[in-house]
Design a protein that fits this description.
heterodimer, A: alpha/beta, Rossmann fold, 2 domains, seven-stranded mixed beta sheet, five-stranded mixed beta sheet, 12 strands, globular, B: alpha/beta, five-stranded parallel beta sheet, 8 helices, 7 strands, about 30% helix
Chain lengths: ~300, ~240
């Protein structure tokens, strides 16, 4: 299977052809996929070199000039390093754009902690009005990229990862999808976590919701899944554990509820190795998840 | 000179307009370091008026050094972008005019600023965006302070814009020698090393500023270093 990131340059190349407002800004990373697009649209495919403050600042400047910038690099260099540029150059200037990251929480384990960004979504949560898409399959990534670029002047973050589910689900860029229905609790699986969650909850009497758009958080969808009474909710997120716990709490403020937030741990592992080894180390494999979910539901 | 619905303002009116914000018509060099350069730009160089403040092909002026914006607000008021009666509320809760400008609140302000080092990258993006839209005529100007150039983000923008040939991009450096660590001539040298056209002038000399602002710079971005009284000698003549 190809990766979400394999779809990025081809999708953007088509969008560049279709919409003269679209511009892509890169900082070396990912430029190879854009050779053809750079020839066709030399003024709208811009590589600024290894300069991430300029990457984000120039992206926002393109928006000031009336374009729809799509800004791409690894999550650690897109969200963490130039975070104030995201806060001020997009937020405070009141302009929109699409930030598309790769490498996610630990897509390249051999690369170590410098290339891991489990905190990207939590950081964006400190800012107002960002839409956050976390696709779980390359087809979903393609759909959500198109959705994000087409979302007017919205501020949109699309989190691409090599972690993916084997089959795509229908995504609408807004709501959670009910994958399974049960009575003992609600498990929200975010993007690439769906397959592990479905395996972990096999035979358990729980509802499984699939979330690919996590901000704004689909509070209505979660309330509907919970029903009217007391609620037990488990969130399984492919980034920092607990990132959406506050959003789930806010959604359920009218009903007694418990929320278990599962995801990537804060502690730096200082390990290399393979993706599946990191999934296991953070307790996000199906076996670990089943034990933690059953323990919580009692 | 310019005409608004109420009044015609000249350079001589600017101290009074600033006085509406500061309560004092006498201002030291620190408060007025940008005043002459701003006036010459808005009076003689920039092709932007209140009526054309949203025109796609207007010239853009980005105030990156957002500290001490009284001179900027005074010039915007003198040129009719904002009402003079806003000036007295400077810094108040319900005033659009803060101690750092906010583009959402201030008519004519292209960017909000205050945190140093954001204007030049935004200006690079604006110049790229105008070019991508086929708007090759408008100029993009960004004003930075000499100490603001300490911020590394500026150097990402300077080092990119020269080799990228962004010839519609212009930087105005107000040099009041406020950087703690600097070498004489270092500002222009760094821009020149990155392929910019560079001119250093007396930041109080209107004719010299005008000549520097309008100097040809085919194929290259242009920087004007406008030297004014050193910040630490505010109110006193400069000795060297």
């Amino acid at each position: 299977m190809d990766t979400m990131r394999d779809r990025f340059a081809p999708v953007m190349t088509r969008l560049l052809d279709e919409d003269p407002r679209v511009a892509v800004v890169l900082a070396e990373i990912g430029k190879d996929g854009f050779k053809e697009a750079m020839r066709a649209h030399p003024d709208r495919v811009i590589n600024v070199g290894i300069r991430e403050q300029l990457l984000v600042g120039a992206g926002a400047g393109l928006a000031l000039a009336g374009l729809r910038p799509v800004v791409h690099t690894f999550a650690s260099f897109l969200v963490e390093r130039p975070f104030e540029q995201i806060k001020l150059d997009f937020g405070h200037q009141d302009v929109g754009g699409v930030l598309v990251s790769a490498a996610a929480s630990f897509d390249w384990p051999e690369g170590g902690f410098t290339h891991m960004s489990p905190g990207d979504v939590a950081l964006l949560d400190t800012l107002d009005d960002w839409t956050v898409h976390v696709p779980g399959h390359p087809d979903e990534a393609e759909a959500l990229l198109r959705h994000g670029v087409g979302a007017g002047d919205d501020k949109v973050y699309v989190r691409l990862s090599v972690q993916a589910n084997a089959s795509p689900m229908p995504v609408d860029g807004a709501r959670f999808l009910t994958v399974r229905e049960g009575r003992r609790g609600v498990v929200v699986a975010v993007g690439p976590m769906l397959e592990q969650v479905l395996a972990a909850t096999e035979g358990l009497d729980v509802t499984v919701l699939y979330a690919t758009t996590v901000r704004p958080f689909d509070a209505v969808g979660l309330r509907r899944a919970v029903g009217g009474g007391a609620a037990d909710v488990v969130l399984v997120e492919p980034y920092l554990a607990g990132t959406s716990t506050a959003a789930a709490n806010d959604a359920l403020v009218e009903v007694p509820h418990r929320v278990l937030g599962l995801g990537v741990g804060r502690r730096e592992l200082r390990r290399y190795g393979r993706l599946d080894e990191h999934v296991r180390a953070h307790g996000l494999d199906a076996g670990s998840l089943r034990g933690r979910i059953e323990g919580f539901l009692g | 000179m310019t005409t608004t619905t109420e009044h015609t303002f000249t350079y001589a009116d600017l101290p009074r307009l600033m006085g509406l914000m500061t309560g004092d018509e006498k201002h030291g060099p620190a408060a007025t370091s940008t005043l002459d350069a701003l006036w010459v730009l808005y009076d003689r160089v920039l092709r932007v008026t209140p009526a054309r403040a949203d025109a796609p092909d207007r010239d853009r002026f980005l105030l990156s050094k957002g500290h001490g914006p009284m001179a900027y607000y005074a010039v915007l008021a003198a040129k009719g972008f904002l009402p003079v009666d806003w000036l007295e509320g400077f810094g108040a809760y319900d005033s659009p005019l803060g101690h750092h400008p906010d583009r959402v609140l201030v008519p004519g302000a292209e960017i909000g600023s205050g945190s140093l080092g954001h204007g030049l990258p935004l200006a690079v993006g604006t110049a790229l965006g105008l070019r991508a839209r086929g708007l090759t005529d408008p100029s993009v100007w960004v004003l930075v302070g000499d100490a603001e150039l300490d911020e590394g983000s500026n150097h990402e923008a300077i080092a990119y814009a020269g080799p990228a040939g962004l010839d519609r991009l212009h930087t105005l450096v107000i040099d009041n020698a406020s950087a703690s660590f600097a070498r004489p001539g270092g500002i222009a040298a760094r821009f020149e090393a990155a392929g910019w056209s560079a001119v250093t002038v007396d930041g109080r000399d209107h004719e010299a500023l005008y000549a520097a602002f309008t100097a040809p710079h085919a194929g290259r971005p242009h920087v004007v270093v406008a030297r004014v009284e050193a910040k630490e000698f505010a109110g006193e003549p400069k000795s060297a």
